[in-house]
Amino acid sequence: MTAPAPARTRPSDEPGGVAPAIRKPPRALRLHDFPGIAPVAVFGIIFLYVPILITTVYAFNDGDSALVWRGFSLRWFGEVAQNTNLLNALIVSLQIAVVATVVSTILSILFALSVEQLRAKGSGIATAILTAPLVIPEIVLAVATLGFIRMIGLQPGMLALMLAHTSFCIPFALMPVRARLKSLGSSYFEAATDLGASSWQMFRRITLPLLVPGIISGAVLAFVISLDDFIISNFLSASGATPLPVFLFSLIRRGASPAVNVIATLLLVLAIVVTTITFLQSQRRSKQHA
């Protein structure tokens, strides 16, 4: 009859044995672990959003002062709708923003696809050159752009604004496109090559549809940046080509009125609507390709 195998003893069962220590998983850090963060965060949120809330509420003020409440009224919305100069400035800003968004997004797509074919060193240099406006002070860009357009014989105005906004918006449109392209990996393109797809077929049926969320995000970011820009617009604006931020600044210098609050509120609503639609479209496309 075979003898039973000896039972395996744990280190703690042996003479002088010590049970191994059981390591607990590290505890997740929480907000109360950093006592100074909460007050700073609350202050930052209040300082950021309370002025927006006040501006929105005072857009419905019946008085002539932007900061003195005289009762609820839609009076200033009508005033803004009938202000020809304001509407012209809005149209100028929208035209510039649309052109800058379309051109900068197209150039960003072409650059993102081209830079992937470069070596690592060349890719880094090209990206650093194109994204330099992100770190260069905007006042420097404005002065340099104004000097450059005068050197080539171009005067401040609509064309100069479109060219400057396009070049300034390229880095903002490029970042989401490159991030999306890097997240795709190479499996899609290798499979398409194995199936005999040409470069154009691969771009039209695979690359472009997969890049759509990044393209939309980059286009929205470029549009908002262009619509919101003041410094470059102030340097390059001219009679008949005054963007909305420059026009608003001139209104504030004459004295704050509820019209400024109305314009700010309408722009806020526009930004929320565009962002919401973009987010929903991106979510829908992501589910379709999942």
From TrEMBL:
**Per the database record, which ranges form the ABC transmembrane type-1 domain?**
90-278
Q: Does the keyword Transport apply?
A: yes
> Which segments carry the region annotation Disordered?
1-20
Q: Where in the cell is it found?
A: Cell inner membrane; Cell membrane
Gene Ontology annotations for the cellular component aspect, listed alphabetically = plasma membrane
The entry's keywords: Cell inner membrane, Cell membrane, Membrane, Transmembrane, Transmembrane helix, Transport
* Its membrane topology: Multi-pass membrane protein
CDD domains, alphabetically?
Answer: TM_PBP2 (cd06261)
Lineage, top-rank taxon, reads: Bacteria
Broad class of the protein's primary localization: membrane
Query: What transmembrane ranges does the database entry give?
Result: 37-60, 86-113, 125-152, 158-177, 206-225, 231-252, 259-280
Q: Which InterPro entries match?
A: Bact_Polyamine_Transport, MetI-like, MetI-like_sf
Record-level GO BP terms: transmembrane transport
Protein family (similarity comment) = Belongs to the binding-protein-dependent transport system permease family. CysTW subfamily.
Its annotated function is as follows: Required for the activity of the bacterial periplasmic transport system of putrescine and spermidine.
**What protein name applies here?**
Spermidine/putrescine transport system permease protein PotC
Natural source organism: Leucobacter triazinivorans
Which classification does the entry list for the species? Bacteria, Bacillati, Actinomycetota, Actinomycetes, Micrococcales
